[in-house]
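Entry for the shared binder. Reason: the reviewer on the internal report wants the predicted structure included alongside the sequence.
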Amino acid sequence: MASPTPLFLILCFTYFSVSYSQTLFLPLTHSLSLSQTQFNTTHHLLKATATRSATRFHRHQHHRKTNQVSLPLAPGSDYTLSFTLGSTPPQPISLYMDTGSDLVWFPCSPFECILCEGKPNSSYPPPKIPNNAAVSCDSHSCSAAHSALSSRSLCAIANCPLESIELSECSSFKCPPFYYAYGDGSLISKLFRYSLSIPMSTPSLILPNFTFGCSHSALGEPIGVAGFGRGLLSLPAQLARFSPQLGNQFSYCLVSHSFEQDRVRRPSPLILGRYDQKSIYGADEYIYTSMLYNPKHPYFYCVGLAGISIGKRVVPAPEFLKRVDEKGNGGVVVDSGTTFTMLPQRFYNSLVAEFDRRVGRVHKRATKVEDGTGLGPCYYYDAVVEVPAVTLHFVGNKSSVVLPRKNYFYEFTDGGDGVGRKRKVGCWMLMNGGDEKDSGGGPGAIFGNYQQQGFEVVYDLEKHRVGFAKRQCSLLWDNLNQR
């Protein structure tokens, strides 16, 4: 099967009329329909995606304690979106969408990226930002970018004289640069405030004083990040200051694709703001669970998980997945940027044992496929394979979500089983996140976007809850554009 470099979705904008004071409907397009680079085999595609999911999860758990804004996760998130910066002339930029961080940053001209060979690059040149757009050291945004440092400390670093600091007269001094570190990359960034627009029907939605990080040098980071997490500098937070209706809720609905070329070409809607879903579906169909506050990682959208059912048997989740403690450990992060769901090892092993007890007694394990893809258990089958239903039981009343079969069991044709034959194979698509005792703390699990396919996932920032509604996402896009 022909496939591209590590999965990400590109957010393309079409031109249609919509009242952006209430809601924006934007199409997400999967990169499998756009990329010119291709994997040699399905094994290669799955292995690369599984490896990136694991790296991203472990980046969550080994977050270093430094004076930094909440960092974007391991690079290579699954979505990008496009904006226009300034107006004379407008400069297009393309950023990864990430619900796991709360800062918007991107490369600026001149830009040097070290060890970026083989990584996807933006199709646009780095923009040029005027010096007078720099954020001052005494702004709230500068303090947010530097986490724990006060504005007076930051102005001292920026060489503002003591008398001016005491008189609060440091507005002409720029916010100092800050350092970001990733699981396998890093960058130095400066903070700017400039006009940012979302290309829509004329006139565009323009955010005249949008705050972002501008990087001139990075290690392994050729593309920037649009943080959708909870925080002062995130995209939803800045939208809320422009229009509360736009910033108090967002949702996306990922078309179920299973890496198939004909399905990834269909747009998946990203919705900023609230829309009247009752006029489309006749009722509020969301299954909600409350957001959990994480004191160490306040930008995460954490929820509690009570257990997972394999068929009719409920496997209880460990206690630390049900809540977040005072140190920021535990809970489940609902993440747009991690492909596969990551679970703690003992819980994962219990689920796999129950799944294998039902499927493995009928079908032979495909151990070579497991080794080649990083996924498992996998099974060979001839005609059809019966698998038990999988249900996620989130914390809360009536908060259970039944996963579609293709969200947790991927079926494809294996190119060879050691003797050159092609055989049908199916793989379990949730991953082992490792022993929680070795994790170093942090989130207990991640609910990845592959398991979110076929659902509208809503982040209700006003009522502090995450909702899931089963959808035919391609039809939702059509319905939204007919309104």
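Summary line for the report: The longest strand covers residues 205-219.
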